[in-house]
Amino acid sequence: MNRPGTGGMMPGMPGSRKMPGMPGLDNDNWEVARSKSMPRGDSIRNQGPLLNKPSTVHKTSSINTRLLPQGSGAGLIGKSALLGTGAPPSRPLSFGPEPTPQITPSPKPLSAAPALAPAPDKPASAPKGNSAELKKKTIALLEEYFSIRILDEAQQCIEELQNRGYYPEIVKEAVNLALDKGTNFVDPLVRLLEHLYTKKIFKTQDLESGCLLYGALLDDIGIDLPKAPTQFGEIIARLTLLGALRFEVMEEILKKMEDTMYRKAVFDAVKKTLEANPSGQTILGSHAAVIDACNSLLE
């Protein structure tokens, strides 16, 4: 007989001899762990009643499933407990698409609005009147001046218009009205413009802008007033001698005219008037580049 520990036999293997204190053996002589509640002795006797109990795990139901109504779930009888106990599912079945949960966007934190910087105060502009009404008043006061030729009264009427932005238009209308009346009104016109410039009513910019406005009309005016280009050149030269106009503006005035004949008539009158005056000769000598630019417009 084999003894424990000899011949390759290990304690607890089938065929080995049971030693005192060893665990119990099952029917196949394999060791079975004995719990504290298991009495000492042969494990086969202790487990005998369990082995003699009929097994109910693999029993099938004797109920005929054909006699049950369809959908009664009788086919689940006798199934393993792992398949469920027949209790209703925790989540109802649905054949349609599941509703998409609506996600409410979290409100964005409101940021404090930046403080608006106070707008800088704009200088008050001169009141603007109706252009037709202003033109009517301008022609009326100019007609009165050319009739009585009182400089202070003409100045007062212009100031009462209270519209400095309209001063270039007054210059244009004064030149147009004087040349339309004839050669005898050139001197009164120059005296009026000189007076308003000396009294600081008109500025150099007002006089230059007014001459540019009239120069743009000379192509049409020259048809009815052939002497107008020459007389206009004389007015420009006299205002330049007074320092009320810059000689550089001469080129811009000529560009306002499209007819080369009118350009030549105006520029020749300017040079002739300046050459007759020593101060004018100095002006011509110091603006050779402007003279060349003006001559290029006559070609």
From TrEMBL:
<dbReference type="GO" id="GO:0003743">
    <property type="term" value="F:translation initiation factor activity"/>
</dbReference>
<protein>
    <submittedName>
        <fullName>Eukaryotic translation initiation factor isoform 4G-2</fullName>
    </submittedName>
</protein>
<feature type="compositionally biased region" description="Gly residues">
    <location>
        <begin position="1"/>
        <end position="10"/>
    </location>
</feature>
<feature type="compositionally biased region" description="Pro residues">
    <location>
        <begin position="98"/>
        <end position="108"/>
    </location>
</feature>
<dbReference type="InterPro" id="IPR016024">
    <property type="entry name" value="ARM-type_fold"/>
</dbReference>
<keyword id="KW-0648">Protein biosynthesis</keyword>
<feature type="region of interest" description="Disordered">
    <location>
        <begin position="1"/>
        <end position="130"/>
    </location>
</feature>
<keyword id="KW-0396">Initiation factor</keyword>
<dbReference type="GO" id="GO:0006417">
    <property type="term" value="P:regulation of translation"/>
</dbReference>
<dbReference type="Pfam" id="PF02847">
    <property type="entry name" value="MA3"/>
</dbReference>
<keyword id="KW-0810">Translation regulation</keyword>
<feature type="domain" description="MI">
    <location>
        <begin position="133"/>
        <end position="255"/>
    </location>
</feature>
<feature type="compositionally biased region" description="Low complexity">
    <location>
        <begin position="109"/>
        <end position="128"/>
    </location>
</feature>
<feature type="compositionally biased region" description="Polar residues">
    <location>
        <begin position="53"/>
        <end position="67"/>
    </location>
</feature>
<dbReference type="InterPro" id="IPR003891">
    <property type="entry name" value="Initiation_fac_eIF4g_MI"/>
</dbReference>
<feature type="compositionally biased region" description="Low complexity">
    <location>
        <begin position="11"/>
        <end position="24"/>
    </location>
</feature>
